[in-house]
Design goal:
Elements lengths: L4 E5 L3 H12 L4 E5 L7 H10 L2 H4 L5 E4 L10 E4 L15 H18 L4 E4 L4 H12 L6 E3 L2 H16 L6 E2 L2 E2 L7 E2 L5 E2 L2 E2 L6 H12 L1 H9 L6 H15 L4 E9 L8 E10 L2 E5 L6 H26 L1
The structure holds nicotinamide-adenine-dinucleotide (NAD) and (2S)-2-hydroxybutanedioic acid (LMR).
(2S)-2-hydroxybutanedioic acid binds next to helix 8.
Length: 315
């Protein structure tokens, strides 16, 4: 079987770590791309990672480049290019800079890998993935954002820590945008099949949800020089795996919703089936009145951000 070709644009913390996880899982051959000003850095990281392969026992060819020609005809392209926030900043503060970077990356990907499935990671996520859709004109099933796998993983981690149980037994879902308005779904949270509210009171659950909402900022505050990358890269790798191995995973992703959930043409975190065609299905749940109200608030925040981006890119 032919190995998948996976390009990762942005060979910084998230990009290089994603290359690491993808190689370790033998998901395909990997091309790490960064800007010309980065000079030989992507080549250096790729060679270093390649030299881990005899020890770790993976067969993946990993190369680094600053030229899109080397990425031609990729099956999957992960976009991590852009700046990360520092303490005191919100993700939305990255909008102006990253909209330009991500727009130019999308233009190049459109030319060189017209059949690729694109996973966008750069922030502010929900606006950046919309930008990639606008610039590439790819069908929306092939332009997806990574946020929900990470946010749900944080939520599951905090629940496992709280309850002193294995992470393997925690099943959960968060929806909405990748920000303070993300929507927890207690009805979709269970531990070993037991509904979460039988194990934890509503007040404590709300505190855990609140920590999850601020999970990115918590890491920024600890690192001080940038933002999280191990868990974000692992989350992205799970999406790459779902696509290249046609796993049909049912996981939360930022997907383009029009009529779905009444969103009206924006990217927002929803449960999807992810396989070799990208988003193969958006799974529509019946939301409670409260969940509906919270979801609408989240969609409104995404819409505001996308409108602000429209003004910036057309200025
Ligand atoms: N969606 C999520 O869950 C999530 C999680 C973590 C980080 N992020 C976002 O991912 C982005 C990257 O984070 P990071 O920690 O890897 O940052 P980083 O600074 O370590 O790496 C970013 C890399 O992008 C490169 N780059 C900049 N412009 C480029 C261009 N035009 N083409 C190619 N490469 C370019 C930089 O040279 C740098 O190497 C940030 O915007 C961050 O906010 C999102
Ligand atoms: O918080 C950030 O700025 C990075 C990322 O979106 C995260 O949630 O870790």
């Amino acid at each position: 079987m032919r190995r998948a070709k996976i390009t990762i644009v942005g060979a910084g913390n998230v990009g290089a770590t994603c290359a690491h996880w993808c190689a370790a899982a033998e998901l395909g051959d990997i091309v790490l791309l960064d800007i010309p000003q980065a000079e030989d850095m992507p080549k250096g990281k790729a060679l270093d990672l390649m030299q881990a392969s005899p020890i770790m026992g993976f067969d993946s060819a990993i190369s680094g480049t600053t030229s899109y020609a080397d990425t031609a005809n990729s099956d999957v392209v992960v976009i991590t290019a852009g700046i990360a926030r520092k303490p005191g900043m919100s993700r939305d503060d990255l909008l102006g800079t990253n909209a330009k970077i991500v727009g130019s990356v999308a233009e190049q990907v459109k030319q060189t890998s017209p059949n690729a499935i694109i996973i966008v990671v750069s922030n502010p996520l929900d606006a950046m993935v919309q930008r990639v859709l606008q610039v590439t004109g790819f069908p929306s099933n092939r332009v997806i954002g990574q946020a929900g796998v990470l946010d749900t993983a944080r939520y599951r981690t905090f629940l496992a820590m709280e309850l002193g149980v294995s992470i393997e037994d925690i099943s959960a879902l968060l929806m909405g945008g990748h920000g303070d308005t993300m929507v927890p779904m207690p009805s979709c949270t269970s531990v070993g099949g037991i509904p979460i509210l039988q194990l934890l009171d509503a007040k404590r659950l709300e505190e855990i949800v609140d920590r999850t909402r601020k999970g990115g900022a918590e890491i920024v505050g600890l690192l001080k020089t940038g933002s999280a990358y191990y868990a974000p890269a692992a989350a992205t790798t799970q999406m790459v795996e779902a696509i290249v191995r046609d796993k049909k995973r049912l996981i939360p992703c930022a997907a383009y919703c029009d009529k779905e959930y009444g969103v009206g043409g924006f990217y927002v975190g929803v449960p999807v089936i992810l396989g070799s065609d990208g988003v193969e299905k958006i799974v529509e749940l019946t939301l409670t009145t409260q969940e509906q109200a919270d979801f609408k608030k989240s969609v409104d925040a995404v819409q505001e951000l996308v409108e602000a981006m429209g003004k910036l890119v057309n200025a």
